[in-house]
Known about the structure:
The chain is α/β, with parallel strands linked by helices. The protein has twelve helices and 16 strands.
Amino acid sequence: MDLKDIRKRIDFLDSRILRILNDRMELALMARKLKTNIEDSEREKTLLDRIRNNSPGLINSEFIEKIYTEIIKESKTLQKKDFSLIGFKGEHGAYDEVALREWDKDLIPIPCEGYHQVFEGVRSGLYDYGIVPVENTLGGIVGEVNELMVNADLFITGAVELPISLCLLVLHGADHREIRTIYSSSQALDQCSNFLSRNNLEPVQYYDSAGAAKMLAEDMPQGVAVIGSRLAAEIYDLQMIKEDIDNLGNNVTRFLILSREENREEGDRCSIVFSTEHKAGTLFRALEVFAKKNINLTRIGSIRSSMGDYTFFLDFIGSGRDENIVSALKDVEAVTVDYRFLGCYKEKKIG
Length: 351
């Protein structure tokens, strides 16, 4: 190993240390949501004692203690700022994070293992908001998210329509002619199947496209590329060698912003959920209300329960403060069961 190789390895470790430190600060912000006071001298003493007693080989314990004293100080500084947190599924660099940055760049994105953790985090108050994809122009509705929406008892406070640009990412300096294997989520691999087939590339399913980018940056496997976002390339210091490699154009995902509280600001889009009795024409009567009042429906979706019942999701243009909308919703509630108003909100269309 020569000096160039050593410095390259140092740069890699520095990047990894920064990402881990950022993860630690995120956990500190989450902890603030669950404790009454920022100051906790007993916890700090226990932490510093543990660090002092477990200092590895070359690192002097006094040096480590100085570092962690500053880390604790910065953690408390961040906790005092009382940031709003928003949960999303996946690792940093996921398209969900791209969308939430478009909605509100001041929110602190917190990665979650799955959609259930996003919903539960918002419900419990761990996160102020959550963001979830509800449908994609290529893949259709996201069934798991729609099922969770039925029983979540949360409100929709915003929406984002995001064009999805699927990018081919590699390690800096990698020879693209040596790439043989592509890692990404199953959805991304499916949407890029033509590109993969045309270039004789082997797809390997990974739990998350951004997770694949993180794996590539940390493990540095040879002959491997990933499909991910431009943001993932920036976060994990990867080289983007090709954009828009999906099979078809017009790849757009619609994301919903979730909250425990109903949006109180003026909106231009509303959402409701309801079921109907097992009688002929019941769904028609609900939809007829919107037709008679000249209200434009923008989405009609349904989820079938294990009992064979259907729950319907409706999005439509209008404000919850409009008398025509208010009247329509009263009429819909009268002819449906398990009716719930999900919120009136603004929707951003990106691109």
